[in-house]
Design a protein that fits this description.
This protein is an alpha/beta fold. Helices cover 34% and strands 18% of the residues. It has 2 domains: 79 residues, Outer Surface Protein A, domain 3; 233 residues, 3-Layer(aba) Sandwich (Rossmann fold), CATH 3.40.50.720. Bound molecules: zinc ion.
């Protein structure tokens, strides 16, 4: 059962003519007749929508319409009561509340989504921390390499973590904001409704470069995924790539080969070359926030668009290019 409650930061205010105003946001505040006061007083987390409609329909008109408007304007929150199927602690509940569009459905979807993050350098760790703080309880980190001085940052691995495994270090950081994060890594949910992979690769060159065959296993298993990488003066991230529907990283590779016949040879030389993480301190955080924004859009049901966004640092000049399927890739069925 869901109950309604007035958003904790929204005030009910009296106006000169006796009407009542809910909130002060110029875009979302609404003015209601004084007869709606009882309706608002019932939005205290104790009553369901049906109960409020039944009680208030005699005294005020359009009760259902008012409730829908209050929810659409984020003035009233419709929250799911405790469900043993999708247990949430208080911290997680607050994190869901912070996401403005977090309806009970969105909240449940976050709870049943399993996110795998490949790469726990500064970028992967920043993404993991933001997602953990956004109410995603099931996040698994994949990175057996060891923390080095390049990974040390104020919001990630610290000096004393140098020499520890990156995935374990990141998991312990997640545990600090979401109890049970480590346990859920060892014993992941068996009933997963949605799977998403994030590939946050280490820097490989002087430009944010992806190995075109890095995501072959994700394509083979039809796992939706998103990629991000930084270099020392730019970064690139994609929208959510849906295998078989959108273009993929190999499509982008084949388009580059169409323009530059030497690109396969250059790709072979770039593969597995070590490179220092010299991204400016703010850049991984900026890219992580953009990546989380892409995931929120995807989670809210926006159609996937495979595109890569290149951001130059520090002027934040952005260029976006669409990753349409390429006929040579084979990741989608081509229309004849
Ligand atoms: Zn492709």
């Amino acid at each position: 059962m869901t109950t309604l409650f007035l958003h904790p930061n929204v005030h009910v205010l009296a106006r000169d003519n006796g009407d009542i105003q809910v909130g002060i946001d110029p875009q979302f505040a609404i003015v209601l007749p004084v007869s709606a006061r009882e309706l608002l007083s019932m939005c205290n987390g104790q009553h369901s929508r049906a109960e409020i409609i039944a009680r208030c329909s005699k005294g005020a008109e359009n009760v259902e319409h008012i409730i829908n408007t209050l929810i659409a304007h984020h003035l009233v929150v419709e929250s799911m009561a405790f469900s043993p199927q999708y247990p949430m602690n208080d911290l997680q509940r607050m994190n869901h509340l912070r996401e403005v569009s977090c309806t009970p459905e969105a909240s449940q979807r976050r709870s049943t989504t399993h996110i795998s993050i490949y790469g726990a350098g500064r970028l992967g760790t920043s993404i993991a921390m933001l997602l953990t703080s956004s109410g995603f309880p099931h996040i698994r980190i994949h990175d057996e390499s060891l923390v080095t001085a390049h990974d040390v940052t104020a919001w990630g691995a610290s000096r004393i973590d140098i020499g520890q495994r990156r995935d374990r270090t990141c998991s312990l950081l997640m545990e600090r904001v979401n109890r049970g994060a480590v346990l859920r890594q060892m014993h992941p949910r068996t009933q997963v409704a949605t799977k998403l992979a994030i590939v946050a690769v280490d820097q490989g060159a002087d430009w944010p470069w992806f190995d075109p065959y890095l995501t072959d296993s994700l394509l083979a298993s039809s796992t939706a995924h998103l990629m991000a990488v930084t270099s020392h003066q730019s970064a690139r991230f994609t929208g959510v790539i849906e295998p078989g529907i959108t273009g993929c990283i190999r499509c982008d590779y084949h388009r580059t080969v169409d323009r530059d016949s030497s690109w396969p040879k250059i790709t072979e030389q770039l593969r597995n070359r070590a490179c220092a993480d010299l991204a400016p301190a703010s850049l991984p955080i900026y890219v992580a926030a953009q990546v989380v924004g892409e995931i929120h859009k995807w989670m809210s049901g926006e159609p996937s668009q495979a595109r890569a966004t290149l951001t130059r640092w520090p002027n934040l000049e952005r260029t976006s290019e669409s990753w349409d399927p390429h006929p040579a890739c084979g990741c989608t069925w081509q229309e004849i």
